[in-house]
Amino acid sequence: MRQGEVHGDWNGRAIAFDQSLASTGYVLFTFDGSLQVEDMGMIKTSSTFSGWTDNFYRAQWIYTEVVNLFGQHKLDLVLHEMPPIGGSPFLRRPDASIVAATAIQCAASHVGLEVKMVSAQVVKKYLTGNYRAEKKGVREALLERFGTTLQGHKFSLNEHTYDALGIAVTYVETQ
Question: Global pTM?
Answer without folding.
Answer: 0.89
